[in-house]
UniProtKB/TrEMBL annotation:
Domain FAD-binding FR-type: start-end pairs: 7-112
MF GO annotations: 2 iron, 2 sulfur cluster binding; metal ion binding; oxidoreductase activity
Gene3D superfamilies according to UniProt: 3.10.20.30, Nucleotide-binding domain of ferredoxin-NADP reductase (FNR) module, Translation factors
All residue ranges annotated as the 2Fe-2S ferredoxin-type domain in the record: 232-326
Domain of life: Bacteria
Name of the molecule in the record: Oxidoreductase
Entry keyword set: 2Fe-2S, Flavoprotein, Iron, Iron-sulfur, Metal-binding, Oxidoreductase, Plasmid
One Pfam family cited in the UniProt record for this chain: NAD_binding_1
Amino acid sequence: MSDDTDSKTRILTVIERIEEPGDILRVKLAAPDGAALPAFTAGAHLDIRLSAGDTDLWRQYSLCSDPAQIGHYEIGVLRDPNSRGGSVAFHRLAALGGGFTIEGPRNHFELAEDARRTVLFGGGIGITPMLAMAWRLHALNRDFTLHYCTRSERATAFRDTIATAPWGHRVVFHHDDLPQAQRLDPARDLPAPEAGTHLYVCGPQGFMDWVIDAAKSAGHAPANIHREYFSAQVDITGEGFEVTASRSGVTVSVGPEDTIAKALARAGISIPVKCEEGVCGTCVTDVLDGTPDHRDQFLTDEERAEGSMICVCCSRARSKSLVLDI
Ligand code: FES
């Protein structure tokens, strides 16, 4: 886990909104006074507060613009009526001239800039961090390919951006509604597993699991397979256990449908939580004793195996109790 965090809260103004195909809204955000924004690295995201009426959520959206351009930030958000409400609220709130409270940029999906070869896989709205990576890899004059998979050719967002980008020839489109031969085929499209080759995957969970499993089976080292989940189906349920907050000595019970974060909050111990589904990393807490039952998609395989950190918004315990460094 890495994090080049800028945790300062800012208000940014919507200076442009573009309706892309596929129900994706592309928005440019700038400082109200037009000042340069903090630099970001390819793969970074913003935490954006969506607050109106009964809605008060924080959601994470990847930056898709060229990291060399810091006059504004650009994000793309898919309107998904089946999600927990964040994307619908974003589409509703992103009025031209309106403001959003943001934190970041933060990067949990960093690019290995010295890789000999890089292959990017973006599924649907998972294209957004890949666009920033493509800009950066092009600036570095690196060897890379971007595979972009969408449901249909007609509903493919960012086509104009890619068509005019100086790296557009490196993008290979794959559409579900076109013949099988052009669809993504891991056996054909994954590069050979070599030490200097790095893979990046972002998109819906099924797409990501498919590509990642194929890459592992093909012999790519887990450390060279980078992924970012923007949402996840997470099962938070399980047997009850106890959690002790070591600094205060308070112990709470976590019930079968409870979370560690909620149980601690009821006892007055608050741990910041944003996504509540184990993808953003906001709630990661150090474990001093006990064995976590990881349910998140945020920690790496190595970090899970080590067991010294836990996402308290969704993960549980394999042991009867956990002691946390809070
Ligand atoms: S709040 Fe996002 S990982 Fe826990």
